[in-house]
Write a structure and sequence with these properties.
By secondary structure, the chain is an alpha/beta fold. 43% of the residues lie in helices and 16% in strands.
Length: 254
């Protein structure tokens, strides 16, 4: 198809939470947005919401842990818009259990999505991002890449891997004109977090206990993390390379 004006951003995990808030923020800046999400996720509703906001957007069903899906998501972006300028690796999952009883399948599922997914999506996107002349990748890590929490070994280790992978990617891809950075959100009020407290309690106590672990005295909002991602994607962050921008309400200071 003939390329149109404006940058193109591919956001994984884009149907809800931080991913959708990021798509909305980038779209309001003039980007055309490709949302990638699992089959059965509310992708159609998310795209409809973006279109209603005047944002040019499409959706593609993809499991980021599968190479063929990652390649298909990137191809869909390039086919629809003729280019790719930004990749936001926001898709993520978690599993909570003591290490001694952690199921191998749950461990693998977390790493397949959180780490393998970043690798596969980035690998697929690199040629198109480099061709854009000023491509950017932002990986969504976590404050738990920096802090240890009992019962969260799989999640903490996967997000620590994402953070260090970000640094390695940043050095490797900089000569091709692609900047790579990460954000490390604290507790953010998203469907994924709310599902961790099905009966008012979760692995870190109650939701109020989690709030109290943030010196700011509240959970984050998806749009607050999206604002940080928006900055890292933009030309305003042209001198920011390999950073892990902490957006956690002071969690890692407590």
């Amino acid at each position: 198809m003939t390329p149109r004006d404006g940058p193109v951003a591919l956001v994984t995990g884009g149907a809800t939470g931080i991913g959708f808030a990021t798509a909305l923020a980038l779209g309001r800046d003039g980007a055309r947005v490709v949302l990638a999400g699992l089959p059965g996720s509310p992708l159609p509703e998310a795209v409809d919401a973006l279109l209603a906001d005047g944002i040019d957007a499409i959706a593609v069903e993809a499991d980021v842990g599968r190479a063929a899906d990652a390649e298909r998501a990137v191809a869909a972006a390039v086919e629809a818009y003729g280019r790719l300028d930004a990749l936001v690796n926001c898709a993520g999952t978690s599993a909570v259990a003591p290490l001694a009883t952690m199921d191998e399948a749950d461990w693998d599922r977390v790493f397949d999505t959180n780490v393998r997914g970043v690798f596969l999506m980035s690998r697929a996107a690199i040629p198109a991002l480099a061709a854009s002349g000023a491509g950017a990748i932002v990986n969504v890590a976590s404050q738990l890449a920096l802090s240890a929490v009992p019962g969260f070994s799989a999640y903490c280790a996967s997000k620590a891997a994402v953070l260090h992978l970000t640094r390695c990617m940043a050095l490797e891809l900089l000569p091709s004109g692609v900047r790579v950075n990460a954000v490390c959100p604290g507790g953010v009020d998203t469907p994924l977090l709310q599902r961790a407290f099905p009966d008012g309690r979760g692995p870190q106590g109650t939701l109020d206990d989690l709030v109290a672990a943030h010196p700011i005295g509240r959970l984050g909002r998806p749009e607050e993390v999206a604002a940080a991602i928006r900055f890292l994607v933009s030309a305003e962050a042209s001198f920011v390379v390999g950073a892990g921008l902490v957006v956690d309400g002071g969690y890692t200071l407590a």
